[in-house]
Structure formats: structure tokens, C-alpha cells
Design a protein that fits this description.
Elements: E1 25-28, H1 31-43, E2 56-59, H2 63-67, E3 82-86, E4 93-97, H3 159-167, H4 176-187, E5 192-195, H5 202-215, E6 238-241, H6 245-258, E7 267-270, H7 276-285, E8 289-292, H8 294-303, E9 314-317, H9 320-325, H10 329-341, E10 362-366, H11 372-381, E11 386-389, E12 393-395, E13 414-420, H12 426-437, E14 446-450, H13 454-464, E15 484-486, E16 499-503, H14 509-521, E17 526-530, E18 543-548, H15 555-562, E19 572-578, E20 597-600, H16 601-608, H17 625-639, H18 645-669, H19 673-700, H20 718-723, H21 738-742, H22 752-765, H23 772-775, H24 779-788, H25 790-795
Parallel strand pairs: 1-2, 5-10, 5-11, 6-8, 6-9, 7-8, 9-10, 13-19, 13-20, 14-17, 14-18, 16-17, 18-19
Antiparallel strand pairs: 3-4, 11-12, 15-16
Helix pairs in contact: 4-5, 5-6, 8-10, 12-16, 13-19, 17-18, 18-19
Length: 803
């Protein structure tokens, strides 16, 4: 039987060379610690953990033992942690070890260690080349024509207006759109569709003919009086509609400057957010040109009997595409219908003949593009319209002829770049970009940073402000005490004082007006952080730089954003922030007269952080001694001349994260009385970061359908996005939070306040780890939950304020 058995022959190598090692087993302690120790033993057989030493090594549950790594041999050789990153093409995860990544040094200062900014980042598809040599600047496409070739007098304007434009407003010659529009609207009574690039002077193109023909009622061509007296009570002759209050204010400002040559003509505005009683009083006194938002004008047409539209000759719809996008279609139909129902009066109530005015109601539609909604608006308002562009004038017949959208583009003298930035590095790259922009005195005077939602605007304003005090230039205006401050981090020896401002639609109208006026009138360098509320029609002098920190929700909005600079022939710069991956394909959609030059985030960091960073001043908030000690320990890294730009970037990220964590710790320590009030005030900063993150993700899901392939929310790494808000983990509740699980969807808005009140209790029950709603989630878990809640995200997109 023994001979019939099976003979097994194993080759175990040369036993004399390497003795067999026993299997090491670890007992006790936490499960995670045992796994790490076993992996370390397998990978380091010849290391400090040997089979000849122990057969079973107990691990302690005591946290003090784990902290003392020198006396605990298990942690001498800890295995390299494997992190996850997005792939180059399809967003799948690849595993890479941190040991293979270089480019920055994680801070080893006591008081907290942040994850590396320069590791586990997706690789950009864009090939970055050395910047080309400066070529000859492009000829401005929206600049005024040469004075020798054209002047306002030759367009049919009176000498009174031409001299006023030349001497008082310093406008020597018209632009191309003004040259093609003014003669047509003065000599003809046809409807018109105006289409031209931003900053080309469309406002004056339709205002000057209106003012000229009203002046003709009381003056001859040589300027002598006709004997007909025109005053504010002579009748309402023109209505101008604009989508936003800010644009209405700007149109009124331009018109006031023009009317200084004809003070008997009176204009005013009726917009939302203002006192309706005072508006009625102004209408009762009389007005000749009325500038309004559609909603408020419909209200006055229904309720203000003194508003007589029988003498109205012009209806101007400015930014027609935006009017339709903002949902004013019903209001516009109502306004057009009420005006057309009213019989056209040939004389006013004083018996003055209105022969110099058009003998029919003229509608002027201004729009950047000829999209479907604009064509629909043209069908509602236009009849036998002529199509006027900067290069040609065509008769469209019914005013609905199709137009090539590619004809509308950014000014040719605008220099556009796009910066490919991984999600984790977005915040420090933005600061570096602004810091480098203001490194030289006079190079950049005013910059606008566009962000997708109001919550994110509030957070970035609080993060980048220097102190709670207002700049001296604000003259103590109480309206802007929370919207204007001195900037931190981005200052330089050349520009030690930079003003920081914020603007969005959730602010009250007087605050919005005062903030915008402060930005326009400031003589010091300024940075305006805003939503798309400032992207249409606003003409702010000396805006040299536009940064799209969050890409626009459509290509058309992008063109309007960058159009805030390079106006009226001036040079300008624009930068677009994109993340590696699918967002890089968005560049192909952008229609621009000048190509967009790619720029690496690494070059931006090297340029921006080549000099030390100035930390913000204390704003009076109380912090613990430990927090102050942590802040002081970061000062050498941020302010030392010997540090590299990458180390400054990581130290700055750690500094910003510690600011949020310090506020969270203060909130945990407050209890009752004044301490509780202090806790509530300091905790607002961390709450603002979480709100901003949630609103940002929801806004990311609202890109137009045709462009969602480039802004795919399933490819958005929530953990990396949280780093751009100085958060160490992605908060939960993106798809609706506890309210989605506790309350019915239909009662979400009614119970929003109850949700916010219960959120604090849930956070305290989670163990005080600084993360909301059950302790938050890791990057991958948050991404998985995000994909599962896509439908909820889309339905919750209306909860934030885009503009």
C-alpha cells in the first residue's frame, strides 16, 4: 500500500540560502491597524517585523500608543497608500501610489497635515506649448471709426447733439453699428433688429435717433426754436425694456448724459426692488422716455392709470435673448398687446401735433444672437423689420429671417486664454492668477470674476477679504458694509491695497446699486466677484480682466461675460478655468475672433506664488490659542523668500482649511451666553463653505442640454471639488439632504428652515468631526451617492440663485 501512494515533489529552492519564515499573525487592536500591519509584514519580510521575533503581535486600542510611532514597530514601515484618480479619457479610476508623484511637499508642520495638492490629479489632454512671441495687436473690431471718415453730424443728428457728443462726452466718431443704425431710425419708420458684438455701442445706436426726433418737435435743424414747447408732461414717447435692474440703471445713466443737451426732455426708470409709490409719483409728474423691467412695467400698466401709452412711438427690447431666457415671454406679450390695443394719438393732450415722430409704432429688438427664442420674440413684436449689423443692413421682411450665430463673436482685440486646472488646485490657482495679475502697478485696474451661484460668491468674498472694515474710499456707506472690503492674499508691493466687491441677485436692490457704483467709481484696483447678473450690457470703465472661474451655462453667456472687457476699442484679457477631462472639449464650441491660448496651472502657480503671500488681517473674531499657534506656524512657509511656489500653494491650502476648521472648533466650544453667540458667528464661515459647495454642484448640473457632454456631473470628483472650497471632505445633502429623506418633496421649501435648524443637531450627534449629516463622506462614497441622486439634483437645481 505504501508503494501505491502518490509522490509529491515540491521545489522549495536552496534552503541554505534563505530560511523559511513563519506566518506572522497580529491580534488585538483595530481591524484597520491589523490589516496595515499584516501588509507591512508581507512586503517587508526583512524589515523590523520578523517571523523569528513573534508569532502573534498584540495591537493596542489606546490612541496614545498609535500616536507614538517611534515606540511601535508596526508603523516603522507603513505601506504606501494607493489613491484613486480619474483616467485621461473616460473618467475611470486608475490606481497610483503617492510615492510616484512629485511636484509639491505636504506640510509637516504640527497642527494638521493636508493631502497633497499635486498628487492623484487627472492628466490634461491639452498640449501646452511655449508662449509665442508677441505679435502685432489685432485691429479692434468694436472701436469707433476714424473721425475723418465719419462723424455724427453726417448721420443725420443735429448740430446740438453732435457738438454735445464731441465736447462733453468726448465721442468724436460713431462705431460701425451706430453708423448703420442711426440714419435708418431717423429717416424711416420701420421696425429694426440690431445685432452686434459686445461693447460696440448698441445703446447709443437706438437712443440717439429717439432723442433726435423728439428734439425735432421743438427745434429746427439749425437749432432754433420752432415755438412748440415740449416738456415732461407732453407725453410718453418711448419705452425701453431691459432684463435686469442693473442694465436699466446703466441705460438711464447713458441717456441722462445725452439729455444734458436737451434738458426739457425727461426720462426715468421703473424697476423691481424700488418704491412703487415713488415711481407712481414720478409718472404722475410726467415722463418722455421710460426705462423699465418687464415685470414692473406690466404692474404699472395694470394699476397706474396715469400711465398713458397712446403717444408711445418706440418700443425697444434690449438684450432680447436674455429677456426670453429669464421667462419674460408672458410679460412681453402683455406689454406689446396693451400698446397695440391703444389707439395711436396724433396729438398730445395739449394739442401739440406729433408730426416729427414716427407715424406708426416702431419696435427695436436688440440681441446678440438669432436663436429660436429670439425669433419667437421677433414674431411677437416685429413687423416688416430691417436687420442691422455692424457690417451690413438687410431687409428681413417679416423680421424673422435666420441669421448665422457665428457672426456674433468676441472683440478681435480681446486676448483669451483657458487654464486647465485639476479640481483640488482650483482655489489656489485662482488666487495665484489674481496675485500675478496685480503684481505690476497699473497693469490691471479692474477685474471681474464670474462664479455660477450666489452662495459661492458669498463664500469666496468672505474667504478673500482682508478684514471686516470698509475701504476708506467707501465713505462709510452703510449699504456696502457687507459687499465691499479690502482684499487679502492677492496684494503685492506694487498694489498693497486692492478692493474686493461682491454682487448677485440675492442682494437688495439699493445694495446692488451702491456696490456697482462703488466698482465703477473706484480709482484703486478692484476685483468684483459676481454671478451672471453682471454679464449683460454693463459698461464699467477700465475693466482689463475677466475671469470665468466657473464656465458659463451656455456659449452665448460666455461671449457676454468676456464682453465686459475690450469695449469700444480698448484692449482686454479674459481667462476661462476648465478641469482636465471632458471639460477641455468645451473650447471647440467657443466662437471667438481670436483663438484661445491654453495655459497650464503650473505656470500660473509659478508666476503667482514667486513672491511671499500676505495673510489677511484679523477681523476681530475670537480664536483659541491653539488656532493662533497653528496660524503662526504657517507664516514662515507663506511669507518666506526661500520657499518654492508649490510649497506656498500647499501651505496656503492648509492655511485656508485651518481657517474653516478653527471656526468649527470655536462653534463646538461655545456654550450659553456670549460664548454661544460667538460660536454661532464663527460657525457661519464653515456653513457658508458647505452651502457654496452644494450650490456649486447643483449649478454644475444646469448647463444647457447640448453642452452637458462637456460638463458631465457624473465625471465631477466631489472630493476634489470640496478642496476648492477649502473643505477636507465633500458634505452630504447635495441632492436635497435630510429634507429629502425626512419630508415629502412637495413640502421641501416649507420645511427648509426646519431642516437648517435640525442640521446642527445632526452634526453634533455625528461626533463633532466637522462634517454635516452623519459625518459626511469620503471622495468615492460621495461620488457614488451623487450618481444615484442625479434626478434629485436636477429637481433641486432651482433651490439656488444663479443670478
Amino acid at each position: 500500500m505504501a508503494d501505491g501512494g502518490m509522490l509529491l515533489n515540491f521545489d522549495i529552492g536552496d534552503i541554505g540560502d534563505a530560511p523559511l519564515k513563519k506566518q506572522v499573525k497580529f491580534t488585538g487592536g483595530r481591524w484597520r491597524d491589523r490589516v496595515h500591519a499584516q501588509r507591512s509584514a508581507r512586503k517587508n519580510r526583512d524589515g523590523p517585523v520578523g517571523a523569528s521575533d513573534v508569532n502573534a503581535t498584540p495591537l493596542s486600542n489606546d490612541r496614545r500608543d498609535r500616536d507614538d510611532a517611534e515606540t511601535h514597530h508596526v508603523y516603522d514601515e507603513r505601506p504606501t497608500k494607493r489613491l484613486k484618480t480619474f483616467g485621461d479619457s473616460n473618467g475611470r479610476y486608475d490606481t497610483i501610489g503617492t510615492a510616484t508623484r512629485t511636484g509639491g511637499n505636504a506640510s509637516t508642520k504640527p497642527g494638521g497635515i493636508t493631502s497633497r495638492l499635486f498628487s492623484s490629479n487627472p492628466t490634461p489632454r491639452t498640449v501646452f506649448e511655449e508662449p509665442a512671441e508677441e505679435t502685432e495687436p489685432a485691429k479692434p473690431s468694436n472701436a469707433p471709426l476714424s473721425e475723418e471718415a465719419e462723424n455724427f453730424l453726417a448721420l443725420g443728428l443735429s448740430r446740438r447733439i453732435a457738438q454735445h457728443l464731441s465736447s462733453k462726452l468726448e465721442m468724436k466718431a460713431p462705431t460701425s453699428i451706430q453708423k448703420n443704425t442711426i440714419p435708418s431710425l431717423i429717416k424711416e419708420d420701420s421696425d429694426a433688429f440690431l445685432q452686434a458684438e459686445t461693447g460696440s455701442g448698441k445703446t447709443l445706436a437706438y437712443l440717439l435717433p429717439i432723442v433726435q426726433r423728439i428734439i425735432d418737435l421743438s427745434c429746427h435743424e439749425d437749432g432754433t426754436n420752432t415755438g412748440t414747447k415740449i416738456h415732461r408732461d407732453s407725453g410718453l414717447f418711448a419705452l425701453v425694456l431691459a432684463p435686469t435692474r442693473e442694465l436699466c440703471k446703466q441705460i438711464a445713466s447713458v441717456l441722462d448724459k445725452v439729455l444734458r443737451c436737451a434738458p426739457w426732455i425727461v426720462s426715468t426708470t421703473v424697476i423691481g426692488g424700488e418704491s412703487k409709490k415713488s415711481e407712481k409719483a414720478r409718472l404722475r409728474k410726467g415722463v418722455n422716455i421710460l426705462i423699465a423691467t418687464p415685470g414692473r412695467l406690466v404692474d404699472h400698466l395694470d394699476n397706474t392709470k396715469v400711465l398713458d401709452v397712446g403717444t408711445v412711438r418706440w418700443l425697444v427690447l434690449d438684450e432680447g435673448d436674455r429677456l426670453m431666457e429669464m421667462g419674460f415671454e408672458d410679460e412681453l406679450k402683455s406689454i406689446v398687446g396693451k400698446i397695440r390695443q391703444e389707439k395711436l394719438k396724433e396729438t398730445n393732450k395739449e394739442g401739440v401735433a406729433l408730426d416729427a415722430l414716427p407715424q406708426r409704432r416702431v419696435t427695436v429688438l436688440c440681441s446678440a444672437t438669432m436663436k429660436m427664442n429670439v425669433q419667437k420674440l421677433g414674431e411677437i413684436s416685429l413687423q416688416d423689420a430691417i436687420h442691422i449689423t455692424a457690417s451690413k443692413l438687410e431687409n428681413d421682411g417679416d423680421g424673422t429671417a435666420e441669421t448665422n450665430d457665428a457672426g456674433f463673436s468676441a472683440p478681435s482685440q480681446l486676448k483669451q486664454t483657458y487654464v486647465v486646472v485639476p479640481g483640488k488646485l482650483r482655489l489656489v490657482t485662482l488666487i495665484a492668477f489674481l496675485k500675478s495679475a496685480f503684481a505690476r502697478k497699473g497693469s490691471i485696474m479692474k477685474a471681474i470674476v464670474f462664479i455660477s451661484c450666489a452662495d459661492s460668491v458669498d463664500f469666496h468674498f468672505e474667504l478673500l477679504r482682508s478684514s471686516a472694515t470698509q475701504p476708506a474710499s467707501s465713505d462709510g456707506n452703510p449699504l456696502i458694509k457687507d459687499t465691499v472690503a479690502d482684499a487679502a492674499y492677492i496684494t503685492s508691493p506694487a498694489n498693497p491695497v486692492i478692493h474686493l466687491l461682491k454682487l448677485h441677485g440675492s442682494l437688495q436692490q439699493p445694495i446692488r446699486t451702491s456696490t456697482l457704483a462703488s466698482f465703477q467709481e473706484s480709482k484703486d484696483p478692484c476685483v468684483l466677484i459676481t454671478t451672471d447678473i453682471a454679464s449683460r450690457g454693463l459698461d464699467v470703465p477700465a475693466v482689463d480682466l475677466v475671469i470665468e472661474y466657473d464656465p458659463a451655462f451656455s456659449v452665448d453667456d460666455h461671449v457676454h461675460r468676456v464682453g465686459r472687457t475690450a469695449r469700444a476699442g480698448r484692449p482686454g484679457k479674459a481667462a476661462l478655468f476648465l478641469q482636465p477631462g471632458c471639460e477641455e472639449g468645451y473650447v471647440d464650441l467657443l466662437k471667438s475672433a481670436t483663438p484661445l491660448a491654453p495655459q497650464s496651472y503650473d505656470a500660473t502657480l509659478q508666476k503667482g506664488f514667486v513672491t511671499p503671500i500676505t495673510l489677511p488681517k484679523e477681523s476681530g473674531g475670537s480664536h483659541s490659542s491653539d488656532d493662533n499657534e497653528q496660524q503662526q506656524q504657517q507664516l514662515p512657509t507663506l511669507t518666506s523668500e526661500r520657499q518654492t511656489p508649490n510649497s506656498r500653494a500647499e501651505a496656503l491650502q492648509l492655511h485656508l482649511e485651518q481657517r474653516l476648521l478653527a471656526s468649527d472648533k470655536s462653534s463646538e466650544g461655545g456654550s450659553g451666553g456670549a460664548g454661544a453667540n460667538t460660536a454661532n458667528s464663527t460657525n457661519k464661515f464653515l456653513d457658508a463653505a458647505r452651502r457654496a459647495f452644494r450650490s456649486h454642484v447643483r449649478a454644475y448640473a444646469t448647463h444647457v442640454r447640448d453642452e452637458r457632454v462637456y460638463f458631465d456631473i457624473t465625471q465631477l470628483h466631489l472630493g476634489h471639488a470640496a478642496k476648492s472650497f477649502a473643505l477636507r471632505e465633500a458634505p452630504g445633502g447635495i441632492g436635497g439632504g435630510p429634507s429629502r429623506r425626512t419630508f415629502k418633496a412637495g413640502h421641501h421649501h416649507n420645511n427648509q428652515k426646519q431642516q437648517q435648524q435640525s442640521g446642527g443637531g445632526q452634526q453634533r450627534k455625528s461626533g463633532g468631526n466637522g462634517d454635516e449629516e452623519g459625518g459626511g463622506a469620503a471622495d468615492e462614497d460621495a461620488a457614488r451617492r451623487m450618481r444615484m441622486k442625479m434626478k434629485q439634483v436636477m429637481s433641486a437645481a432651482g433651490e439656488f440663485n444663479i443670478g
